[in-house]
Design goal:
Shape: globular
Distance between the termini: 12 Å
CATH superfamily of the largest domain: ATPase, nucleotide binding domain
Helix content: 25-40%
Strand order of the largest sheet: 3-2-1-4-5
Largest sheet: 5 strands, mixed
CATH architecture of the largest domain: 2-Layer Sandwich
Radius of gyration: 19 Å
Number of domains: 2
Number of helices: 7
């Protein structure tokens, strides 16, 4: 029987069925009716384990709904930290971020890694060759930077992600585009130079966009958080469900 994996992020919900540590079909939802979305995925199939990783706490009401869907419920949020305690990750990490790092340790075992996650925030994490967590940074994501420029200055318009950007900008719009895109590229270059021997992994919604603009060899891994959740869930099944 397959497991159902749910990743509740800052702006969207991603889901996938998994067999063992292998992901199957994935789904994406952006809206307020998260529980309805999860329920819709189980109308034709009941999962062996329903695993949910969230950047926010799952409310008691939501937990009751999820338990009604599947008795084998695995929650990873601040109120349910137990599932990640054996992975040696600090408890200040958001659980979707920690789940991604579990996947990196599994996929790139024995390799030192720098992990860039391009989403609402831009997170940068460092793993040693032994899989140990060495720390990381958090910055504004690309679209968040565009929104911040518009919100916190009276004169600047809201600019969308450009298909390409000029450097330097030669108009008001292109100056914003170039400032944000080039700024992130310069950030990435700086992190790469700080650990030039590391394997580079990009994930998140804007990963492909920036990977195409870098000169370095980069692994783009989509659904890294769901992959980590699949690994965590598979180990949970082996330990707790006969």
């Amino acid at each position: 029987m397959s497991n159902l994996l749910i990743e509740i992020g800052n702006t969207a919900v991603k889901a996938a069925w998994s067999d063992g540590s292998v992901l199957g079909k994935t789904f994406r939802y952006q809206g307020e009716r998260v529980m309805d979305f999860i329920c819709s995925l189980t109308e034709k199939q009941t999962p062996l384990v329903l695993a949910v990783v969230a950047v926010r706490d799952i409310t008691p009401e939501e937990e009751n709904i999820l338990t009604g869907i599947c008795q084998n419920l695995l929650l990873l949020d601040k109120s349910h930290p137990g599932a990640l305690s054996s992975y040696g990750l600090p408890d200040y990490l958001t659980y979707d971020r920690a789940s991604s790092l579990v996947a990196v340790s599994y996929l790139f075992k024995g390799k030192a890694c720098t992990v860039f996650d391009f989403g609402t925030t831009l997170t940068i994490d460092f793993l040693g060759s032994d899989g140990s967590y060495l720390g990381g940074n958090i910055s504004l994501g690309c679209r968040t930077r565009f929104k911040a420029l518009n919100r916190y200055s009276r004169a600047l318009p809201l600019v969308n992600m450009p298909s390409d950007s000029k450097f330097p900008g030669n108009s008001g719009i292109s100056s914003i585009e170039s400032g944000v895109i080039s700024g992130i590229k310069f950030e990435i270059d700086g992190y790469i130079r700080s650990n030039p021997q590391n394997i580079l992994i990009f994930t998140g919604g804007d990963a492909n966009y920036f990977a195409k603009r870098m000169k370095n060899s980069i692994f783009v891994v989509c659904n890294l958080g769901l992959m980590g959740l699949a690994i965590i869930t598979d180990e949970y099944v082996k330990k707790n469900i006969q």
